[in-house]
Each structure stands twice: as C-alpha cells, then as structure tokens.
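Why predict the complex rather than its parts? Because the way molecules touch one another can change local conformation, and only a joint prediction can capture that. The input here totals 1067 residues.
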Amino acid sequence: MYAIFKREFLSYFRSPVGYVAISIFSFLAGFIFYSQFSYGTVNIGSEVISLRSFFVIIVPIITMGLLAEDKKRGTDILYYTTPVSLFNVVAGKVLAAFALYAVMFLNVVIHIIVTLACGGQFGVGAVGTIIVFFFMAFMFISMGMFASAITDNQIVSAIVAFIFILITQLLTMMSEYAGTAVTSLASTIGIKSESASSAGSAVKNFVGWFDPFAKTQDFRLGVFSVSALIFLLSIGILFLYMTYRVLEKKRWSQA
Amino acid sequence: MSKDNSSEKINSDVRADKMKLFSIGSVVLLAAIILLVNFLFDKILGKAMTFDFSDSSQNSVSKETIDYLDTLSPDTRIRIVGLFNRPDNVASTKYQYIVPLLDDYVKESNGKITVEYIDPTEHPTIISQLDPTNSYDLANQSENFVVEYNGKIKVISPIDCYSYDEEYYRSTNNYLIVGNNTEYTFTNAMYVLTNGYSAKAYVVTGLKEEGNEYITKILNSMSIDVESLPVSENFAVPDDCSLLILNGPNSDISEKMYVAMSDYLSSGGKLLVAVDYSSINVNENFVRLNLLLNQMNINIDPLLIYENDPAYQLSGYAYDSNVTAVEPFDEFSSLPILHATYCRSVKQAENPNSAYITLPVLATSDNAATLQVDPETGRAVDNGMITTAKYYVAMYSYVDGVDASEAFVFGTLNFTSDLYISSYGLNDYNVEFLRSCVRELVDVELIDGVNVQTKMIDSFSLDTTKSTTSASTAVLVVFMVLIPVVLIGMAVIVYSKRKNL
Amino acid sequence: MIEINNLVKRYGDKKAVNGISFTVNDDEVLGFLGPNGAGKSTTMNIITGYLSSTSGTVKVNGHDILEEPELAKKEIGYLPENPPLYTDMTVKEYLDFICDLKGVSKDKRKKQLDRIVSLVKISEVYDRLIGNLSKGYKQRVGIAQAMVGNPSILILDEPTVGLDPNQIIEIRKLIKSLAKSHSIIISSHILSEIQEVADRVVIINKGKVAAIDTVSDLSKRLSGQTKLLMTFKGPLKEGIGKVRTIPGVQSVVPRLADSKFSQLEITIVSDSSADIRSAIFYMMANESWPILEFRSLDPSLEEVFLSITAR
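Output of the joint prediction:
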C-alpha cells in the first residue's frame, strides 16, 4: 500500500496536476476567506463548510488519472502480477489523493493563523467542520476513484466523477422535484390530496436522506453529528469496495 | 443467472461465473448492509450521537431545562410543532439557533417531547388538531412554533427567541441579535403549560410608555400570567390582580385611575412602579401618581440624579451610574451593585403615614446631586436644591396586616424596560433583582420557574485595529493572487524541467 | 519450476486457451511459440496471475497461483507484451517504485538495482524520463522491472517485437546471459528467434499445444521442409523439367511466370543430405538462363504446424 501511495502522491508533484489542484483550491478558499475578512468577521467553520461546494471541481482533477491512466499505459498489470493485493492498490491511491487534500488544506491552516492573529475566533465548532470536511473529501475521492476505474480515458473519468459529485450535491434539490412529481402523479391517478402529498414528502425525505450536504449543513452551527460521519465513511468505503471489484473483474471478465 | 442455468450450459466458465456472482453479490450485500446500518444508526443513535460543538452551547439545552424535564412524569407528552416544512439549511436564518436546539430537546427529554414540522397548507388538519376553537389563528402563523401539552397550546414566534440590540434597531432599522433566548422561551412555555400560572399581573398601558415585552417574558418565566390593563373611561383593577405594574409611564394617571388604584391598594394590592427622567417626561411631575404613592410614604421627585462620584459613574457619565442595593435588599441579587440611568430621585414622602414602613432600596453615593432640567434648552436649572448627599433611586413600602399592601417604586427604567433588558440580557443583575422584587410582592407561593440563561451569540468579529482595509487588501493579494500564481509557476517549472529529462 | 496443467481460458463461446499443459524446469529457457492470436499472451497472463483460468492449475515453485497468489507472484518477473512503464517517471524513480511494490528492503535495494542496471545496460539513461527513451531502452527497462525482487522465473512476452535488428541482437544476448540463473519463458511468433535462445520449445496453435520439443529435435523434424526460391530469365515449363531431373528434388512448383522471367519453388527431399544449390546453378548456367534471385525459404509457422500435425 505504501508503495502505491508514495508513487501516486509524488506523481501529483511530478506533473502539473497537483500544483494546479492546490492552486485552484487556494484561490477558492482565499476568496471565501477574503470575503469574510473584508467584512470584519471570520467564521472558519463557515469557510470550511462552504469549501464543500468545490469538491465538484477539485476531486475530478485529482482522481481522474488514478486508475484510468494506469489502464491506458498498461501499468495496471503490475498490480495483478506483483505480490501486492488489489485492495492495497485501491487504498494506496485513495490515501494519496486524500493526502493531497490535506496539503491543500494547509491554506485553511494559514487562514486560521491569520484569523487568530487578528483577534478572531477559532473554536471547537470549527474543528468539527474540519473533521467532517475530511470525511467528505474521503467519500468524494472514493467516488472519483470509482469513476477512474470504469474507464481508461482520463477525460471520461473526470466527467463521470464530476457528474457523480454534482448529482450528490443536487440531491436535496432533486428530492424536492421527486417529491413534487410523486405528489402530482399520485393526485392525477386519483389519490386523495392528503395521502398524495404525504407520499410525495415520503419520497422527498427518502431521496433527501442521501444528501451528504444536508447531513453536514449544521456542522457550521457547531452541531457535530456522528451519524453523518458514519454515513460519509461508509459510502466512501462502498465506492472503494466497488472500485476494488471493478479492478478484480479484469481477472474473470469474459469480454 | 440461476444455478440451473449455468449447469445446463456445459460450455460456460464456472470459475468466472462464480467470481462474477461473488463480486456482484458482495457489492450488493455491502451496499445493503451500509444502508441498513446507516438507517438504524440514524434512527436509534443519531440523536444521541450528535454533539454540540458551538462555542457557547447554542444548540444544547442547559442543565436547568434538563432538571425541569426530569421533574415531569415519564408519560408527559409535549408536542412542539413548527408550522412549516423543516428548513434544509438553517444557517443564517432566524431558525439557525432554534431547529438544532429543538432537536436537542427531543434527545434530552426521553420521549417526553416530540418535534414535528407540519405545513398547514399541506396538512390543514393540523390546525384543528392543535387549536380546535381557532383562538390563535394558526393559519396565519406560518413561521411560528406551537407548543402543545394536554390540549393547551402556546405560540412561539422566532422573534421571541432572540434579544436584539434595540438601540441599533432604532438607529438603523436593522435587527442585530445580541442574545439567544430560544431555550428560555421554549422551556418556560413548556413550564407554564405543564404547571399553569400561579398568579396574574396586570400591566397598565396607554400612558405613553414603551413596550412591556421583556417584563412579560420575565414574569411568565416566574409562572405569572401577564395581561395588559389599558387606560379607559371605566378603568378598574380586576379582582384576580396579584400585581399591578406601571412600567415607564410618560404621562400621569387619570383621576379615575387614581381612585381605582387607591381602592386596590387599600384592599391589599401590590404595586410595582418604574419611572425615569427622560426628555419626554421632564415636564411631567406625576402629581396624581405621587398622591397615590404618598399614601405609602413614597414620593417621586421631578429631579434628575447627578452622580458626582467618579467611582460610581459608568464610562464617566454622571447620568449613567452604579447604585448600591441597601440592606436588606442587597440579598436580592448576587451582586448588590446595580446599573441605573437617567434616574428620578425617589424619597420618603412628607407627612408620613405611620401605618406603612418605608425602606430605601437603591442608593447613590454620598456625593450625588439632583438637578432640574430645562426642557427647552436641555440644561440643568439651578433651582436652589442642589445639595450633594445620598439619594435614593428606589424605595419599598409595606404595611403589615390581613390586606397587606406593598409597593416597589423605581426611579429608573433599567429594571423593567425593553430597551435595557434587550441590551443586557435576561441574566443581568438588574433582572435578577427585579425577579426578587416580584417574588417579594406576589404573595402566592410562586413555583420557581426555570431560570434559563440567555446565551450570547458566538462572535467571530476580528480586532478592528488589525482587520483594516489595508490588511484585507493584503489578504486578497496573498491568498487569491500570490499563492495561486506561485503554485501555477511551480507547475510550469516542474513540467518544463521534467519534460526534457 | 512451473507446472501448467490442462489450462483452459474461455472468452464467451471462444476458447482462447484450450487444455494447455507443460512444465518449465529450473534454469531452462522455454520458447513459447505460436502465431498471433494463438493464446500465447493469454497463457502468460494466466501464469502470472493477471487472468484467472476457466479451469486447470498453474503451480509456480509449488505455489498455486490462485491459492497462494502472493507467494507464487514473488517467484515471477513478468514483462508483458506492452511493458508496464510509467512514462512520466525517470528510470530511477520507476525502478525504485517497483522495488517498493515488490517489497525489496532498503538495504538490499541498492546492490540489486546496481546489478540489474549494469546487466541490462541502462545506466546511461538512469536519470532520464522513460517517456523520452527509445523503444529498445524501454524494453530493457521493462526487463529490469521484471528482474527486480530476484524472481527465479522470468516470463517475457515478445521481448523483441518492434525492435530494430541491432536491438534484437542486444536483447537476445541479454536473455542468454539471464538464462544462467533464471528459468525463462520467452514467447515469440518468430521461429528463428526462439531457436536462437531456447532450450526447449512449446508450440501452440489455436489455444492448443501443437508440439513440445527440444530445439534440436524440432530442427530435425523441420529439416525435410527445406525449400528454395529461384527466379530466372528463361522459359517456365522447360525450367521445371530441367530442375526436376536433379537428384534430391522432390517437387517443383511454379510461382510466377511472365514474359521477362519465371519463378520456381523447389522442395528438396527430406533425406537428401546433398546441397543441390550448386547443381542447380551449373544447370542454369549451362542453359544460359541467368539466375536473378536464389534463396532458401524459411518455413512459415503455419507450415511448421501443418508439418508437425501431419505426422
């Protein structure tokens, strides 16, 4: 696992990809920090929670090459023919992308230092948001990794990851539409309006339940929810496992 | 693919089929387990495993509330209904501190409290369910919460849950939240619903006074019901009145009111009066009010107290100073030094009525003076009465006996006004002092309400001397230009260096 | 030592490998010969654990590739048809990564890499980017990669394909030198290349083993198949008649005839030990039919299979 981690992590810095990703992150985080700073109040928790919106841009950049490029170059054969287990390959690659995120996060650390130097607050609430931020990063990186496993084209992989994350980000909105659709559908087929709207809201609640953004929204208010962390962690693990299975498929695939 | 199917096809790759089945099966199984575990965790432990990391525990109910909830019998069912759909994102809305706190209520109450969000436009039956007589007009309370217990309800608006900086509001017309009273409001609403009121107070309105919102809140929290008693032609003090309040009148009472209130006092009434000396009422000498108070040996002077002692002055203002609680009233608050602004002097009346015993309550330093202010110029008028001495800002008077009447008279509004309490919060020493006065006045054994503290809103303000315009320009340049550009530069260097290796 | 037993690999309805069995002995170079699409790469991928077989077993030094994959893979160094090279790394970085991947400990790493680098002769490109190397160097780096971790078995899939003749010679030399301490399986679709380096040859066609033999025995089997191609200026029919008269000639088949010249394919009797080329030359000179082209024809693999399976 360490071998894969080391190679992938260093490869971010051997090519422009790592620098570009960090640069984009720095700019976006800097923008949020600046807009708070210029207003005279800096809530680091709020900044970190706002940074969630940028996974959709940054994660595809750092995950697109993870497996797709291996397949294209034929280097993936190394993972099957050397005494390293495929799961360690997957874990090493996710860790590398995750570590890159940690490096990016140094920006926020600098923001915290500036905030404290200017007499601002950095409390436990903000620590909670940082924890959930990294859990979320893990989940989205796993998604991006999966997207990278199902194709051998980096661009396709980036687009698929982008769509995955975008859908996740818009789940709450989509849950509203789904709820409204079910309500109107139910009422057109002649169900009483009361039960139609409760069916609609049941669908809305069900779809909305999957939205990690809604689940982690209140962290900025200091609400630290372990179940949200478990959700993020387990969805991440599911995607990792699926990635592992996709890699393994190559061994028995009949195609 | 079923097993039979694969054994029929002799040609098929059994090993690969097995691996495929295992692969897909294990993914499906893992997904199912993950969903199940998450649903269960969310439902069973989700609330218990939610912690409040906010800097001043905005989202947690305090020990006082928990203690109160513990006193309720286990089969108590209090229902809190928000008359709207649960907002997805409460940050920076008026529900920011309410929705998470209500979740904590549910968590701490062991099933005694349920919180629901039901939009009456989607589920109209909720209105008749909560308010069958439609006396609260719930259909038009779409932003509010209803607390229901045993068929009784109380409506709480989000605005009830915060204290605002009233001065800021007056000057800018914007609300600046300074304190969070969400827990205070909800707990006391539940308290009143579960315990009922033990007394009733009437607040006289219509004497050009400011609002009575906060004193109502405070009395409610002491299980005293509050009703307003408007000035009218046929003014009368109701029989169920346990306490009559005159909070900051700017005009004198009428003859009719004088008679009614005298009757009330002589039959053992309790009176709380608070008057200050402001630009609106400089010319008001409260002749009839003083006639009433004189019966109890108290007189409010039309004179402004001027504090000469710098140790008593607050921020160097002679009209804004500390006053000390005089024994035995120093026991009334945990700090006997209280805050008074623009005070009238309150003194013992001439020709004392020997039936009443009169005690000073709040006193200035020995080095204070009283002034009269010319309403035209706003300047002090030398009326020959300027002598430095100890003056009183509040007095207490009582008579022993069957119909024991009692009164507290304050020459300042710092104990009762919305302006003061909204700025200093419900935990202020002045408020604590007021509570003690009310307890003294109202005879009925008051079940002590739940004394929940106002929570200060987390402040993320920067030191203004450091977060200057030039500092924020520096932040802009460093974080949005310098760091990203340097990184792009590194990308270019690394790329061009390695390209030709 | 590798024991391969009744290996089958099915892709849908097609069997890419259909019951292949053979054994590779220690320190032996085994040539794995077959035309394109015969199942060479599939077999090698199964041996190295990249693919799983439909049925059959592979045992590497006693470890089953499916049951003890990690132990089995430790014994194998594999150079697939497309060398698994990270083009964005330098040779040094790449080999370092391979060491990490194969778990070569830090203290042994330097010594081992030095040995490999000097053996495959890549020290002059050690700090260069793999993407910028020539095909020959890339192939060497691929071989170096396979050698990392001191596996006792090297499996090289078409190691010379796409290389220029000089590079081919270099690589062959390298393989010969490696053979001293490794069991090697080397695949190719060119017979002569295998004959050059291998001790034994496994020939497969259409997923089945067509022959397993030592190189010398195989040559004997094929010796009857010697063919000559001759192009001359002269009449076709008479030419055929004349050549047929030469002893040792089994058959003469016309290949091409036009107004300018004729071309003949001459098959020589298998037991003929005599070199008939001079006899043909003198005959042609006698007739004043100038020989424009005269060369021996290498048997195509298809023909080899035909001749082998014909027996």
